[in-house]
Amino acid sequence: MSKDKKQNLPLDVLAELMLNRGGTKAVAPLIKTDKRTPSVRSIYNIPYTLDAKNRFLQFDWHCPARVAEKIQNATAPTVFYIHGGAWSSGDKKLYSRLSKDIAEQGYTVINLNFRYLPEHNLATHYHDCVKCINYCLSKAELFGIDRNHLFIAGDSSGANMAALIGGRINANSFKIKGELAGLLLFYGIYDLNNLSTVDFHICNALHKGFEKIKGAGLKEFYRVYSPITYISKNYPPCFITAGKVDGLHTESTMFVEKLKNAGVKTCSLIFPENRKDARHAFVNLNGKARTEALETMFEFMEKISNYQYK
User: Fold this and answer.
1) In terms of Cα–Cα distance, which of 111, 198, 192, 118 is closest to 155?
2) Which residues make beta-bridge pairs with 62?
3) Which of 3, 63, 186, 250 is 20–30 Å from 280 (CA)?
4) Residues in contact with 261: Cβ distance below 8 Å, sequence separation at least 6, in sequence order
5) In this structure, are residues 176 and 134 in contact, taking their beta carbons and an 8 Å threshold?
6) Which domains does the chain have, with CATH numbers?
7) How far apart are alpha carbons 8 and 249 in whole angstroms?
8) Lowest mean pLDDT among 56-60, 110-114, 304-308
9) What is the pTM of this model?
């Protein structure tokens, strides 16, 4: 096969060819390292569809070095991360630091992109995320994924989609080739009926946009895309965090209450109003809230999955 033809292959196919011919050392040119997190190995912009050049249909892979260096015969518990941005903006590259911090604790992290508003609707957003998860699980050994210890995470609108996917897995409307250990949710919105009243700058505009598009079907649309719809006693265990300085925090406190009333294992960290460092998007900022939230999250993950990570 010519060099030019090789370069046009999907990255995972190229990696498999290189592995078959030269062993794990052959993928070294694809793997990147970061001085800040030297124990993590990364590959960026891996396509999860045949549309290999569409950045919205790509993911970044971050993995502990001990797993990356063995690739085909080593795995780690895995986090699928869905970024926020009001379903209409954002990019996985903004979450590289967070993904590497998670990977440094012994996890494989799939940090994914997806198509969003206004060119596409929430159904596309959901199906892109599901497609990426299924794609990665179909190549679990290549990507160092432990199918028996899976987490889905997200912030803001990404938390909505993470919670929605978890709920639909629980409701058997979406199946994965693995075991979902839990959900990791940062300052999300969990009942879309509250878009018109919640005290957050962009929510009312989103509501008006959805109302214009859906018309009489708005109520059913909100029901289908609200994670609260899918709560039952078998809903996945959840870590949830938000700050009361964030106008969207009422969604988190409401969701926590509903989960606990249903008997779902829930770990919540809601920062008080005087914690200005816990404003919206704090997971991407340098502050005590970020550190405290991640420490609590890691404790939750280890406890519910009973897995020895490092």
Assistant:
1) 111
2) 42, 109
3) 63
4) none
5) yes
6) 1-28 (no CATH), 31-305 (3.40.50.1820)
7) 45
8) 304-308
9) 0.92
Question: How many other C-beta atoms lie within 10 A of the C-beta of residue 281?
Answer: 15
**CB neighbour list of residue 91: distance below 8 Å, 6 or more residues apart:** 55, 83, 85, 113
The H-or-E segment that residue 76 falls in is: strand 76-82
Per-residue CA distances from 260 to 153, 169, 240, 251 (Å): 19, 19, 12, 14
Q: What is the distance between the alpha carbons of residues 103 and 77, in angstroms, rounded to a whole number? A: 10
Answer whether 265's CB lies under 8 Å from 238's CB.
yes
Query: What's the pLDDT tens digit per position in 37-81?
Result: 999 999 998 889 888 789 999 999 999 998 887 766 689 999 999
The predicted structure's pLDDT at residue 1: 44
Task: Give the span between the Cα atoms of 155 and 72, in whole angstroms.
Answer: 31
Q: Give residue 16's pLDDT.
A: 62
At residue 274, φ and ψ (nearest 5 deg) are -80, 0
Give me the amino acid identity at 60.
Answer: D
d(Cα 99, Cα 63) in Å, to the nearest integer?
Answer: 9
For residue 139, with 0-12 CB atoms within 10 Å meaning exposed, 13-18 middle and 19 or more buried, which class applies? middle
Lookup: tokens for 277: 């460092």
